[in-house]
Structures are given as C-alpha cells and as structure tokens.
Amino acid sequence: VWSTDITYIRLGQGFAYLVAIMDWYSRKVLSWRLSNSLDTAFCVECLEDALQTYGKPEIFNSDQGSQFTSIAFTDVLKREEIQISMDGRGRALDNIFVERLWRTVKYEDVYLKGYVNMSELILGLTEYFSFYNQERPHQCLAYRTPDQVYMSAQGGGAVIVDRFGTEQLSATTSTGQRRPATQQIGNTA
Predict the structure, then answer these.
(1) pLDDT by residue for the chain (189 residues), tens digit each?
(2) Distance, CA of 123 to CA of 132 (rounded, Å)
(3) Which end of the chain is more exposed for a tag (fewer CB within 10 A), N or C?
(4) Which spans in 27-153 are helix H?
C-alpha cells in the first residue's frame, strides 16, 4: 500500500506545498514534489515518478483532496490498474503514516532551519529525505531505516488488524512486488 498527502510549509517569502508518496510497509518516502500552488500537476508528476522508479502498489491511499480526486490523478491509477482507496472526509487518522511523516519533517527539519525561499527548501528537503530513508531509524520498524526494511522486505511496517482478528501483513515477492499475506492472531475461536 502506498499513500500520499499534501502539507504546506511557511517560508520567509510565502508558502510552499509539499506532496509525498510513502510505502506503508517500510515508511520509505518514494517520491516528493514541491509547488507554490495547489495545482494537480505536481501531484501527478510525483505519482508518475514513484511508479517509474518503484513499480506499482496494489492499493493507493489518499484523502479526498481535489488533487487526488482529479481525473488527471485517478486516470494514472486506473491506467496502472491500482486499487484506489480514499480516507473518510475529515479523517486525518485514516492516513496516519503520512500525517506522522509531516510532523517528523517539520519538527526535525523545517522548523529548525526556517527556510526563506523555495530554492533553500528544495535543497534542504532533498538532504532530509535522503537522511530519513537511509539513516533515520524508526521505532516502529524495530529501529531499522525505511531503506533497510524496503530492501529486505522483512516485516515491521504497516500492520492492519481487521475486526475479525486477522492481521494483514504486506509481503514481497521475489521480484520485489508487494503482495498481501495473512496471519491469524489472537483468539479466533
């Protein structure tokens, strides 16, 4: 499962909008883009980059923002035969992994550096996302980095438990494509 969202970043001179696509399993930031407007194009460009670089997920999750419900964006997902999943309106916790990413990016980088303009922000976030994926250990990943988990395809990423007590774990095939695997947990009697 991949997910996406947009956040805004206050600059010394105006605002910037940041979109990122994250792999739920590993928390790896697969692609990101900045824009000075909320035009759909930068989101589509981010999606196309992630698909070209990492292949395609089975499911793509987003909120119901106009960029992600646009024909341009959904047509890319449909063309690639990716299942579209959208959060409930106003339910930020449905996309908790990306919301947590925004908090991390802002508190570990953006607020500390106080970027003045888009050029500074691009350079800073390029460095930060490299650090985030390659060097920053995550507690939820057993203190491994997103890259370590993504490359090894060993668990520790997104775990979804349905109401019947079945734990859905994302697994990886030998070709690197994600597939769901199911494991019973708890009392199923």
Answers:
(1) 999 999 999 999 899 999 999 999 999 999 999 999 999 999 999 999 999 999 999 999 998 889 999 999 999 999 999 999 987 665 556 678 999 999 999 999 999 999 999 999 999 999 999 999 999 999 989 999 999 999 987 544 444 433 344 444 443 433 444 433 333 333 333
(2) 14
(3) C
(4) 41-54, 66-69, 71-79, 96-105, 111-113, 118-134, 146-152
Instruction: Judge if pTM exceeds 0.90.
Output: no
For the chain, percent helix, then strand, then coil, each to nearest 5?
40, 30, 30
**Which residues neighbour 75 within 8 Å (Cβ) at sequence distance 6 or greater?**
none
Distance of alpha carbon 175 from alpha carbon 51, whole angstroms:
15
Domains, the chain, in order of start with CATH, read 2-141 (3.30.420.10)
Partners of residue 32 on adjacent β-strands: 20
For 35-71, the DSSP string reads: ESS--THHHHHHHHHHHHHH---SEEEE-S-HHHHSH
Q: Count other C-beta atoms under 10 Å from residue 167's C-beta.
A: 14
Residue type at position 21: I
Give the integer Cα–Cα distance in Å for 24 and 142: 15
Residues 6+ apart with CB under 8 A from 52: none
